[in-house]
Every structure is written in C-alpha cells, then in structure tokens.
Design goal:
single chain; 704 residues; four-stranded parallel beta sheet; 49% helix; 9% strand
Length: 704
C-alpha cells in the first residue's frame, strides 16, 4: 500500500510488524533468513524515503545475518548475495568507502558463479544486471572506465540471451509482458553494445586485427539483436497471422512457452507470464531514459510467502536430483524453441520479421542485400555514446560476400539524443530558419557523423555516381532527417548548400532483418512488377503484368472544416500521364479511394510504382493511437475486425477512416509491387515507447 499511495505511515508500520515477526522467530528457524531479508528491504526503502543512514546500516547488518544463515546449497543463496551487494552499493554512494563497492562486486561475482549455468527466468537476468551494474560503478569510481568491459560483455551476453528466450515466448495477444520486460531490462542491450564497442576500439588501437574483427562482429550482432526486439513489431504481429505450416509451428511454440514458464517457476525463476508481478519499470532503453552508472538491480529472491516471490511455486521435494532432471528438460525445451523459431523464420519470414524474433542476419547477408558498393549504417544510442556500425559491400558482385565492417563511437550521449526529440517536435510552418534548433542540431550531427560517412563513402563517390547509403537509426534517432544534414567532409566546413542527399542516395530501414527480407523477396521476383502467381493474395489476371503504376489519393480533409487536399488528387492523375502508352496506370481517387479499395481490392498490388497521397499520422504512446493513413470510409465491404485485434483500425475521421499500420501489416496486398511512394505526414515515426518502437508506416510497407 505504501508503494501504491506513498503514505510513510504504512511503511513505518510495515517495519514495526516485521521487527515484531523477527523478534518472535527462533534463531534456528528456517524462516529466519527470510524475515531478516524482508526487514532489510523495508529499512532500505525507508532510507530511500528519509535518508537516515541508521536505516541503511541496519539493513546491511540484517542482510549480512540473512546471508550467514543461508546454506551453501540453498537456491536462495544467489538472491541473498545480490541483495547484500545492493545494500553495500547504496552505502558506497552515501559514504564513498571503496571497501563497500569492492565487496559488492565480489558478492555479485559469487552470485553469478552460482546461476550462470543453472539459473532460469528473470532471476538470471537480475543477477547479470547486478554484476554489470557494480562493475560499471567500480570502473567509474577508480577512473578506469571500460576496464571491466570484457567481463561486462560476457555477463551481459548471457543475460540478454535469457531475456531473448523469454521474449520469444511472450504472448502476442497481450503485450503487457513484453512491454514490462523491455522497459525493465532493455537497457542491458545498450550496456552490452557499449562494452563491445570499447573492446573493439581497444583491439583496433592495439593493432590486434584478429581481436578487432571478432569484437566488431560481436558489436554488429549486439546492435542488430537489440534493434530487432522492437515492441511495435510485436504489437503489429498480433494482427498478422502466420501462414501455412508456419501456423502449426507457431501454435506449438505457444504450447511450449507455457511449459517453459512452468519449469522456470519450479526451478526458481521468476514468473514470466503476462500476469507476472515485475514491479515498476526501473531500467531504460536505448539511451532515451538512461540508467545512471551504478544503478542497482531490484531486490531479488525476497522469500516472503505473503507477496510475489520467485520461489513460492517450487515443489516441496526439489532435491538436487529432481533439480537436475527439471533443468535437463528445460534445456531440451529451449533447444526445441530455438528450432521452432528457425523453422518458422524459414517458412514465413514476413511473420517472423514482424514478430521480432528472427535471428539477426549476418554481416554477409546484410552486404548481399545492398547494391554493389552500397553501405548500411546502424546508429544505436548507449548511455554515454552513440554506436555506429557500418557494413560496406564491395564494388563487384563477385566480392559481395567479403564485406567491410567498422564500428565508431560518436559523442552523442543519452542527453544529446533526448534533445533530438525536442528539436524535431517543435512546431514549424514553412522553411526552417537558420537559427532554428533543428538546423543547429543537423549541423552538429553533420560534423560528427559526417566524418564517419565521408571516410566510408569517399572512395565510392565519383562525379557521375552517388553511392547508396542505407541508414538504420534506433529509437528517437528515427525522427532525425539524416538526409538533410549539412555535408562537411572534414567535419567542420560546410559550403552552405550541400547536404547528405546531394552526395549519396539515402534510404532508411528500421532493422537489418527487414532489409534482408526485402532483398530475398526481390530475388524471388516478388517486387519487380511481375505477377505473383503462387501467392494467395496476389491479384489475378493479365492486368498485373501490364500495369506499371497504381495511384491512390482520396482527397479527404483530416479535420472538420479542413481544407480538402485537391492537389494530391491532381498529382495522382498527372503521374498517370507519365506511364508509357504500352503500359497501364490504375488511378483510385476521391470517394473510390476507400479502405476496401486498399485492403480488399488490392489497389496497390502488382505494379512497378505505387503512389499513395493522403494524410498520415504517427502513433502515440498514450491513448492507444496507432500510425495510419486517412481514406474514405466504406461499410460492409470487409468483415468487421474485433477491437481487441486491431485497436482503432476502424476509427473514423471527419470524412473518412484511419487505416492503421497494424491492419495494413495484416492485410495490405503488395505482392508484385516494386516501389511505394508514400506522400503523407509522420510516415516514419511512432511513439518512442520501450523498445525500438519507431516502426511506423515505412516498416509496415517494407514488411508487406
């Protein structure tokens, strides 16, 4: 109740009651360590409220006593070690005694040694978080930032792997579990990337080419994995259903998830189901709300039978032999889960990509998806810097499987990335003035990022050729118009006119897996303006092969009394006049440009160029609004879609209806279409919620 209402009287009473319970517990009672630990938690909470050092010191003493009374073979031991480490870290922050911090590190290392090969569920992630947090704090305290980078990277890699396994079985019908998991633990991805970036830089500076290549590859994999676990894709996938044999495997995956959750509870891992009580979000994601160095993980293994606790559901006969059998069964089921995910990815790559559980594509796969001489650049904020991972394909097709991969670190800490949101969201009407915050931001970015891009693109640029640059931002960086940054090859000098789009063909994609998905579809001839005869939703008939342009422009106002965008309708008809006489254009405008025309009549499918000109909107973190396009309403042409499935897909505007990205991801026919020209506001952005949620309409169209 104190956590709910914040009344200090409730907290004081809880302390008094636990004091009384402890006083009545015999010293040899098996419940005494639990009572000691619970009182330590309450006193530590009260210290955070009032700042009385006496509460903190007593909490340390109680945790020491609880640890001393915990048998070495007890499953509670990792939690007791971790909780004492938390208390000592807090006391170090108060008094600055290095002995407290060193002991906290030792305790976390002991806990990690106990769980790294046998822990299950969230318990293992909490211990990994705790050890990494303490190592980071000690590096800063001793003025040796990055000294423990290798240990951090190993620990965080194991913790992230456990998190990924849990996310892979999070239910798609209810996103609460994935939301909470990413909000609580997502910052571990950023910490891991930061550690690997330091290791790669150190190896490069030492001239150790082999180690540098290994660490650069690991840094790419870490960034690609973190970006692929974006929450909005998981949300959208609730409306996108797997097809064919993949649907059967997906059902088996759901059954397997329930069994793994049950085993995690039996073995001592925290509940990971949708109703799991994980407490309030305490982490951060992708540097947008950075967790300060030394931030502690939450208390672990509380042991109270009156509240949610990791060990409440253990069987009473959990002997070492039974534990070993259950752990072996869990390992077998995890292997089956991995196998199922790989099979589903092969059978239905579109659904797997949208769900966000695909194995990140290799560097070679990314390079092969680029045009000859093309460059892919992943930008990933961490608490202290922004990592830039660059993949460059060789000029010749025959050398495309020997790409160049580099990593750089830009001086864009979390606070600087956060300023991007303020600059981008400031209202503007007309040209951007020279002193505008956004213009200053772009010049700043041009100086830092321009050097990296110039070094990469310089050898590829000729007077008659603009190299292809595919940018993959993360989080808030999705909102930055990187193509408009001033071009400063030396990082300082700008001619006042040249911008990045003038020297390179700039494009955007959310994640590497979406890029590879599109390249593979293209190789199969699905997006080259050819008939897609073997696909269920492809339009039939010879018209597909002859039609090279499809244009949709409803000309509907986005507000009552708003101006009707007649110019968009004129643009659609004018563009159709450019189609060669031997081909055809399919133009759908005004009242004919309905939701049914887009989703049911395949108005954009089977063409070389599809043009959509209408109002767009970005999603919002609060209120449940999703990104979408405004079209004319229709009634009864398509079956009703349940509110729980598609949210506000059928929400109406003043004269039309918003067709959301989620519904388009589930139903929009785009087979055989090579290029979509999307002319609408806010098409690339969604709300920056936990995870790389800035998927928006662009990713929806790319996945379809």
């Amino acid at each position: 109740r104190y956590a709910l209402r914040g009344d200090p009287a409730d907290l004081d009473r809880a302390v008094d009651l636990d004091e009384a319970a402890l006083a009545r517990t015999p010293t040899d009672s098996p419940d005494r360590p639990m009572r000691l630990g619970n009182l330590a938690i309450y006193l530590s909470t009260r210290y955070a409220l009032r700042g009385d050092p006496a509460d903190l010191d007593r909490a340390v003493d109680l945790d020491e006593a609880a640890l001393a009374r915990t048998p070495t073979d007890s499953p509670d031991l990792p939690g007791r070690l971790g909780n004492l480490a938390i208390r000592l870290s807090t006391r170090y922050a108060l008094r600055g005694d290095p002995a407290d911090l060193d002991r906290a590190v030792d305790l976390e290392e002991a806990a990690w040694g106990l769980v790294r090969t046998s822990a299950t569920g969230l318990g293992a992630i909490d211990v990994a978080w705790g050890l990494a947090s303490r190592l980071r704090a000690r590096d800063v305290a001793y003025g040796q930032v990055g000294a423990s980078a290798a240990q951090q990277a190993d620990t965080l890699s194991a913790g992230v792997a456990t998190l990924d396994s849990i996310l892979a079985r999070a239910g798609l019908a209810d996103d609460r579990a994935a939301d909470t998991l990413l909000d609580r633990y997502g910052h571990l991805h950023a910490w891991r990337v930061e550690a690997l970036l330091r290791l790669a830089t150190d190896a490069q500076e030492r001239g150790d080419d082999d180690a540098a290549r290994q660490r650069v590859g690991e840094a790419y994999e870490a960034v690609a994995l973190a970006k692929g676990r974006r929450l909005s894709a998981r949300l959208h996938a609730g409306a996108l259903a797997p097809t064919g044999a993949a649907a059967t495997l997906a059902a088996e995956l759901d059954r397997l998830a329930a069994e793994l959750d049950r085993l995690d509870q039996q073995l001592g891992g925290t509940d990971t189901g949708p109703d799991a009580d994980l407490g309030p979000p305490t982490g951060s994601w992708l540097g947008e709300r950075a967790t300060p160095v030394g931030t502690v993980a939450p208390d672990r293994y509380r042991g109270s039978r009156a509240r949610h606790a990791p060990f409440d559901d253990r069987t009473t006969d959990l002997t070492p032999q039974r534990t070993a059998r259950l752990a072996a069964l869990r390992a077998e089921l995890l292997a089956r889960q991995t196998s199922l995910l790989n099979e589903i990815q092969a059978l239905d790559p579109r659904w797997a990509t949208a769900r966000g559980t695909v194995t990140p594509p290799s560097v070679n796969e990314v390079a092969a998806a680029l045009p000859p001489g093309g460059v892919a650049m992943l930008l990933f904020p961490t608490p202290d810097t922004t990592a830039v991972v660059t993949v460059r394909r060789a000029d010749n097709d025959g050398d495309s499987h020997d790409p160049t991969v580099t990593v750089d670190s830009l001086p864009w800490p979390a606070g600087k990335v956060g300023a991007v949101e303020l600059a981008i969201s400031s209202p503007r009407d007309g040209p951007i003035p020279d002193g505008d915050d956004l213009e200053r931001l772009l010049r700043d970015l041009g100086g830092d990022l321009g050097l990296v891009i110039a070094r990469t693109l310089g050898p590829l640029t000729t007077p008659n050729r603009r190299p292809s640059l595919v940018l993959m931002p993360t989080g808030t960086l999705h909102r930055v118009p990187f193509h408009a940054i001033p071009w400063m090859a030396d990082g300082t000098t700008w001619d006042g006119t040249t911008r990045l789009a003038d020297v390179a063909r700039v494009s955007y994609v959310a994640t590497p897996d979406v890029l590879v998905l599109r390249a593979r579809e293209a190789a199969r001839g699905l997006d080259l303006g050819e008939p897609a005869e073997n696909h269920e939703t492809a339009p039939a008939g010879p018209e597909v092969a002859r039609t090279t342009l499809a244009a949709v422009a409803p000309g509907v106002a986005d507000a009552s009394g708003g101006q009707v965008p007649d110019l968009t309708v004129a643009l659609a008809h004018a563009t159709a006049q450019l189609v060669p006489s031997e081909s055809r254009a399919r133009v759908t405008t005004r009242a004919r440009a309905t939701r049914h025309a887009l989703l049911g009549q395949a108005a954009l499918a089977g063409v070389g160029l599809a043009l959509v000109a209408t109002h767009g909107r970005a999603g919002e973190e609060t209120g449940g609004r999703q990104s979408g396009l405004l079209l004319h309403a229709d009634h009864g042409a398509l079956p009703e879609v349940g509110q729980a499935d598609l949210g506000d897909a059928r929400g109406t505007g003043p004269q039309g209806t918003w067709v959301t990205a989620r519904e388009m991801l589930a139903r929009l026919p785009l087979e055989g279409t090579r290029h979509v020209q999307l002319l609408a506001c806010e098409t690339h952005a969604d709300s920056p919620a936990p995870g790389d949620e800035l998927a928006g309409l662009v990713s929806t169209f790319l996945i379809r």
